[in-house]
Amino acid sequence: MSETKNVYRLQGLSCANCAAKFEKNIRDIQTVEDVQLNFGASKIAIVGEASVEQLEVAGAFDGIKVFPERQKFKEEKIPFWQKRENKHTIVSLFFLIFGYMAVFSIGEDSPATITLFGLSILIGGYNLFKVGLKNLSKLEFDMKTLMTVAIIGAAIIGEWGEGAVVVFLFALSEALEGYSMDKARQSIRSLMDIAPNTAIIKRGNNEYEVDVEDIQVGDIMMIKPGQKIAMDGEIIKGQSAVNQAAITGESIPVHKQTGDEVFAGSLNEEGFLEVCVTKLAEDTTIAKIIHLVEEAQAERAPSQQFVDQFAKYYTPAIMVIALLTAIIPPLFMGGEWSEWIYRGLAVLVVGCPCALVISTPVAIVTAIGNAAKNGVLIKGGIHLEETGRLKVVAFDKTGTLTEGKPEVTNVVSFSDSSEHDILAISAAIETFSHHPLASAVLRKADKEKADKYTADNFQSFTGKGAKAVLNGTEYFIGSPILFQEMMSIPQDVQKQIAGLQAQGKTVMLIGTKDEIKGGLSVADQVRKSSLSIIQKLQKLGIEKTVMLTGDHQAAGNVIGSQLHVSEVRAELLPEDKLAAVKSLREQHGKVAMIGDGINDAPALASATVGIAMGGAGTDTALETADIALMADDLEKLPYTIALSRKTLNVIKQNIAFAFGLKLLALLFIIPGWLTLWMAIFADVGSTLIVVLNSLRLMKTNYN
After folding, report:
1. Residues 538 and 550 in one domain
2. Could you identify which of 51, 69, 276, 514 might form a hypothetical disulfide with 7, taking C-beta atoms 3.0 to 4.6 angstroms apart as the criterion?
3. Is the pLDDT of residue 598 over 60?
4. How many CA atoms, within 13 angstroms, populate the side-chain half-sphere of residue 464?
5. 686 and 565 in one domain?
């Protein structure tokens, strides 16, 4: 089986039904093994062999143009009313108007009147008939087949005027669908335009303007005040305020200096910077965001899967209902053939599934694009919908609810060792550790100018501590639990530990197998925004907020009470956090887990929705989480949940409205209360309302 996978961008992909037909046509190419069409991002991935010419032949029915993904092409920005198919619709409208003028002046049966309506039908419906008749010959039933049969049937029974109205309103409906998807895709296009296509590169003593595709890792970019940064890199000279709103959604510029990381698409506001490029153009953070957003739009949400499955049976069912409506009453109830054929045609028209098919994708694409512009990466419609149903939110404490920059607050001795010695021994062991508390110990030792001891044979105990050998003696550093496993902790030491923990501090003990030498207490500052975030979540209807921490229960309770979380689960190892999330899911159903995406990756994976913070700074967060908050804070969490709930409501409204209107129209057709043109007007109206309702999601913002 071929592993060759080629990705192409598409131009002119106008409707969800056209996308499905295009995909089917490509699958019919013998050398193609698999096809993945992304309607939201207007892209297609082909496994196997197919030329651009073959792909364009497959999409010729809708005028689809195909371009290799990496090939630069300038997308034609044609005004809505100047597009060829829309010009045909406008001309069709003129003949329709002249036709009705002729009805009032010379009568509806006049050859001139019929000619005007016929021209309106042919000009406005040419593309429709071309596809519809071809489908009919293959017994393929989609909305274009329904409309073709309805319009030809109207002409046969002499309803030329109504046939022309149906053609015009259907063309208008198609134009609206194309316009709505273009609007929804604008969020992605705006992301693509964030980073410049060229940068000034310093080579030797000369400066050159270079295309980003030709810039290599290690090249030096020269960035003047007011310029956008073209590539991810590290500042090697200069300092400035950099606006990262395009990446993180944070509107306040961040101070950057030598050694700091900058992202492609961010704006250098003040100083002159020299930046060493650290990633190729296709690997930059903004490139990854665009790729992941496009992948997210390709993933069908549960509601979309339901609609797609329903549509498979819906269209043939409408054909059967229309046929029965047309023939049963005349055959068995003495009805007029022309009257009941007319009503059967009205069933075909009202059965057009435009509004239903577009009800979900336009809402999902709009919401995911809106979120990306606001610094939130949602990796699929399923995660968007699940976030809208959340009942419980669990937080990893360190670095999520707290700053993640712990500081040593106390050094105490429980033996004849001095506090200075306790700090020096601790620093010697922690030199080998990557734990956040280790860096706090090393900073304190450096600040206090503690003696530098050399340690050997380092070994860590996950979630408990570590040990190493100093001057022939084996020392341990870690939580009280680690020492409880080796000895009985003296009462006076236990009292001091309890006192520090009651202040919300984390306690680490230092000693040998036989004796506790001393201890350190470490505190992490609660983020200023954490309390307001918890309160906002409660207002949004989140039933329970849970803090998960490896700290002692007393220390965890202090932070938990400050933040008013519903529950604190403490003294948890990484595997315990995983178990905690699983138990919350069993008790409450939909649970989100929020962390940094690194230490808590298993817990994130087991949650209904895993949300990682600081996605702009770590590839791991982008890869492991279902949703990544690009900024290193929780400010966008309430916005994300509110957007998801609004999207869920919009999708439900769209589906209910599309279904409801179809059902109502069908009930009106049987007694003859609904004409052909009223039926198509109901269809266009429902499509328009579904589109406008979905595009409201573009207005949902962080504030």
Report:
1. yes
2. 69
3. no
4. 14
5. no
CA 483, CA 242: separation in Å to the nearest integer? 47
Asked if residue 242 and residue 212 are part of one domain, the reply reads yes
The answer on 166 and 110 residing in a single domain is yes
Distance CA 58, CA 40 (A): 19
Catalytic residue among 219, 232, 396, 683: 396
| Three-state SS at 220 | strand
Sign of the torsion formed by the C-alpha atoms of 174, 180, 184 and 188: positive
Active site residue 396: yes
| 687: nearest Cα among 438, 355, 372 | 355
Which secondary-structure segment (H or E) carries 368? helix 361-373
The helix/strand/coil state of 211 is strand
Burial level of 508, CB count in 10 A (0-12/13-18/19+)? buried
377 touches 616 (CB < 8 A):
no
Say which range, 176-180, 458-462, 504-508, has the weakest mean pLDDT: 176-180
Span 518-541, mean pLDDT? Answer: 90
pTM over 0.85: no
Q: What is the pLDDT of residues 394-431, one digit of tens each?
A: 998 878 888 877 889 999 999 888 999 999 999 999 99
Is residue 38 pLDDT above 80, yes or no?
A: no
Residue 640 belongs to some domain of the structure: no
pLDDT at 509 over 90: yes
Q: Which residues, in sequence order, are CB contacts of 82 under 8 Å at separation 6+?
A: none
Q: What distance in Å separates the CA atoms of residue 387 and residue 591, rounded to the nearest whole number?
A: 9
Query: Which of 230, 257, 283 is where one domain is finished?
Result: 283
460: left (phi > 0), else alpha (psi -120 to 50), else beta? beta
pLDDT digits (tens, 9 = 90+) for 255-268: 899 999 998 988 89
Strands (E) in 173-232, as ranges, are 198-203, 206-211, 220-223
Residue 569 in contact with residue 560, Cβ under 8 Å? no
Report if residue 642 sits inside a domain: no
**Mean predicted confidence (pLDDT) in 339-358:** 77
Strand, coil or helix: 471: coil
Q: Are residues 428 and 385 in the same domain?
A: no
Answer yes or no: do 448 and 469 share one domain: yes
Q: How much is the mean pLDDT over the chain?
A: 83
**What strand order describes the sheet that includes 206-211?**
206-211, 198-203, 220-223, 273-277, 233-237, 261-262
Q: Is 577 part of a structural domain of the chain? A: yes
Q: Cα–Cα distance between 576 and 567 in angstroms, integer? A: 15
Report the candidate in 570, 585, 577 with the shortest Cα–Cα distance to residue 601: 577
Q: Which domain holds residue 309?
A: 82-187+295-363+647-699
What's the longest Cα–Cα distance across the chain?
116
> Residue 666's Cα: distance from chain center in Å?
37
With b for 16 or more beta-carbon neighbours within 10 A and e for fewer, the 351-388 pattern comes to bbbbbbbbbbbbbbbbbbbbbbbbbbbbbbbbbbbbbb
Do 305 and 183 lie in one domain? The reply is: yes
> With contact defined as beta carbons under 8 Å apart, do 99 and 164 qualify?
yes
In a domain, 192, yes or no: no
Structure token digits, residue 310: 């329903």
How sure is the predictor about 1, in pLDDT bands with cuts at 50, 70 and 90? very low
Of 193, 272, 213, nearest to 237 by C-alpha is 272
- The CATH number of whichever domain residue 609 belongs to comes to 3.40.50.1000
Provide the number of structural domains found in the chain.
5
The CATH number of the domain where 239 resides is what?
Answer: 2.70.150.10
The phi, psi pair for 25, rounded to 5°, reads -60, -40
- Find the CATH number of the domain harbouring 423: 3.40.1110.10
**Angstrom distance (rounded) from CA 505 to CA 515:** 23
Q: Which of 523, 539, 567 is the last residue of a domain?
A: 523
pLDDT at 622 over 70: no
